[in-house]
Structures are given as structure tokens and as C-alpha cells.
Inverse folding.
């Protein structure tokens, strides 16, 4: 199974919205990849910005799959991959 970049963004938006008790449309996410630092995401919500590391992104994907698609996966089954866009392979 593969999640697109938009699916990953949706997962992060839903996760942050749930944590901050706001509507998912109030969350903006930009996915990033750096040769030295790896995968991360910049999140803007409630007038503030924060950077999520890959572990936070994997947690959001894990929760998204469980809550939205009723699929139970574990973090070690999710692999972030940089292609034309950032995708998540679930295996």
C-alpha cells in the first residue's frame, strides 16, 4: 500500500487538529526532506509554527490509517520515500 503526499498531509492535519482541538482546515502542512536531517514537516496552526520530525509524521500516518481506513499498522511497517513527491510505503 502506498500513501501519496496529499494523504500524508491529511494525516498530519487530522493529527494536529485532534491534539489542538481545532478544525483540520485550520492546519497547514509543508513536507520537507533534507539530505542531512531526513524527512520533516512544517506545521502552521493557531498562528504558530512547529517542525515535526519523521517519528511524529509516522505517528500521524499510523493514527490516520487506523481512524480513517480502519487499518492497523505499526510504525516499523511505514517507510517514507522521496520520489517525485514524498510518499509513504506501508508494508
Amino acid at each position: 500500500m502506498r500513501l501519496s503526499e496529499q494523504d500524508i498531509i491529511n494525516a498530519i492535519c487530522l493529527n494536529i487538529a485532534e491534539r489542538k482541538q481545532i478544525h483540520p482546515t485550520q492546519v497547514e502542512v509543508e513536507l520537507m526532506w533534507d539530505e542531512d536531517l531526513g524527512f520533516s514537516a512544517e506545521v502552521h496552526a493557531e498562528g504558530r509554527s512547529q517542525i515535526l520530525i519523521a517519528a511524529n509524521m509516522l505517528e500521524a500516518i499510523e493514527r490516520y490509517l487506523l481512524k480513517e481506513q480502519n487499518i492497523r499498522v505499526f510504525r516499523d511497517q511505514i517507510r517514507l520515500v522521496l520520489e517525485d513527491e514524498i510518499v509513504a510505503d506501508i508494508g
User: Anything to note?
Assistant: The longest helix spans residues 5-20. The chain has a mean pLDDT of 96. The longest strand covers residues 27-34. The chain is about 35% helix and 35% strand.
